[in-house]
Every structure is written in structure tokens, then in C-alpha cells.
Specification:
The complex is a heterodimer of chains A (about 90) and B (about 180). Chain A is mainly alpha-helical. Chain A contains three helices and no strands. Classes of the chains: A mainly alpha (about 90), B mainly alpha (about 180).
């Protein structure tokens, strides 16, 4: 996966907007656990993680091995959290 | 590659430990989701989202500060590192307020599994924030002396990378503990 060069301030605005979006999704969910909403909140968090890694930590300028390790961390942790959430009897 | 290899290895190790924390939390949440939801309902989400905004903003300021160091803008870099430090202080203040409100309400780590993980995981993260704040203060002071230190770019990049890691770990902890029902 490659990553475009996005101005740092635009990345910050995206991160703040995504945080507001997660908060709004969670508030709108009432007391019930709505699996697509909860998984959506988790996916938004990991999109934010990748934005921080690529643009703030500047991993997009790093050797391919480091980008590969950071992408593997992001994808695997997100996958395991979704799997654990989905496997639980809610 | 921005920063030092040793710092990246430390960051990777820390991220592995937190990955285990996240999965542990989600596993035990699955065993007793009703109790975890009840615990979460006692948290103040507004404080959680405020702290997320503070850390994201401090990370942005640090990223701008590193750009200023690269351009050898000795007037701008310390201001940006300093402003990031102010955001870190804000995060710590909010967290201390949050913990004290919970403790005053009689909610301790012994109250439930949810609160055990809440205190332990957010507490370990808070320690990272305190270490990061010390680092930000040091970088602020150091970046004021243009000719002496702005050439040590990897030092600034390494400090910044650590701070961004503290930010990204919170970006996962926040929805896990405060938002996901």
C-alpha cells in the first residue's frame, strides 16, 4: 500500500473529524450494542492509526520493511479485535 | 527513515505490549459484556473525547515542529513543541480530574473487571504521556538554540515518533474503553 503526501494540517483535520464521527456514532447507538456500529467505530480508529503512522510518524518515507511491519500491526490488531468482539455473545 | 533505529524498536515493542492489552480487554469484555457496558456507562465520554482532541492536536503540533526544525526555523520550533506540551498538560489534568471523580464516587480498580482494566490500561498510558511531556519540555528548550542543536534532526524525529505512538495508542484505547458498547 502506498500513501499520498497529504499536508499535515489536513491530516489533523481528518483525525479530528473522524473522532467526532465516532463519538456521534456511539452517542446515537443508545444503550444497545449494534454490531455494525461498534465495528464501524473500531474501523474508524484504525484508519486514524494508519493516518498517524503514515503522515505524523512519516512511515511513508521509511524503508518498505518498516511500512510492512506497521501495516501488519494495524491490520492484525484490528482483525483480532473485530474477531473477539464478533465471537462474544452480546 | 526518520529517527533512530533503536527508538523504532522500542516503539514496536511498546505497540506489541499495547496490542496484547487491547486484545485482553476485548476478550474479557466478551465474557461479561453486560458488566463492561454498565461500567462504561459510568464514564464521562465528554472527557474522553476532549482528551482525544488534545492528543491529536499535540501530535499535529509536534509534526509541524519537526518540519520547522528541518527548515531551521529556531523561532517557530520551540513554540510548536511548547504548545504540544501544553496540550499534554491538558490531557494529564483531565485524566487526574477523571480519576479523582471516579475515586470520590467510590469507583476503584476493585469495583469490577471493567474498572480494573480501565485504571491499569489508561494508567500505563498516562505514564507514557508523562514521559512524553518531559521529552517535549526537553525538545522545546533544546530547539531554542538554532545552531547548536537543530542539526541533530534524528533526535527531534525520534522524540516526535515516541509522542505520535502515545497518541495512536490512545486513539485505540479511547473507542475500546469509552465508545464501543
Amino acid at each position: 500500500m502506498t500513501s499520498l503526501r497529504i499536508p499535515i494540517t489536513a491530516v489533523w483535520m481528518l483525525l479530528m473529524g473522524a473522532t467526532g464521527c465516532s463519538f456521534w456514532l456511539s452517542a446515537g447507538d443508545g444503550d444497545g450494542a449494534n454490531a455494525p456500529v461498534e465495528i464501524g467505530i473500531l474501523l474508524i480508529a484504525f484508519i486514524k492509526v494508519r493516518l498517524i503512522i503514515m503522515h505524523f510518524m512519516e512511515m511513508r518515507k521509511s524503508p518498505a520493511l518498516m511500512r510492512w511491519i506497521s501495516d501488519a500491526w494495524t491490520i492484525l490488531v484490528c482483525f483480532f479485535l473485530i474477531a473477539l468482539y464478533s465471537a462474544a455473545p452480546n | 527513515m526518520p529517527g533512530e533505529l533503536g527508538v523504532w524498536l522500542f516503539i514496536l515493542g511498546d505497540m506489541m505490549v499495547f496490542a496484547l492489552f487491547f486484545c485482553t480487554f476485548m476478550y474479557y469484555r466478551g465474557l461479561d459484556s453486560a458488566s463492561f457496558r454498565a461500567g462504561q456507562a459510568q464514564l464521562n465520554r465528554n472527557l474522553g473525547v476532549l482528551n482525544t482532541f488534545l492528543l491529536l492536536t499535540s501530535s499535529w503540533l509536534v509534526a509541524l515542529a519537526v518540519q520547522a526544525v528541518r527548515k531551521r526555523q529556531a523561532d517557530r520550533a520551540p513554540l510548536l513543541f511548547g504548545a504540544a506540551g501544553v496540550c499534554a498538560c491538558g490531557f494529564i489534568t483531565v485524566k487526574v480530574f477523571e480519576y479523582s471523580a471516579k475515586l470520590q464516587a467510590g469507583i476503584t480498580p476493585a469495583s469490577s473487571d471493567f474498572f480494573l482494566y480501565y485504571y491499569v490500561f489508561t494508567g500505563i498510558h498516562l505514564l507514557h504521556v508523562v514521559v512524553g511531556l518531559a521529552l517535549l519540555v526537553w525538545l522545546t528548550l533544546r530547539s531554542r538554540h538554532e545552531n547548536e542543536s537543530l542539526s541533530e534532526l534524528s533526535l527531534y524525529e525520534s522524540g516526535a515518533s515516541y509522542w505520535h505512538m502515545v497518541d495512536l495508542l490512545w486513539v485505540v484505547l479511547f473507542p475500546l474503553i469509552y465508545l464501543m458498547k
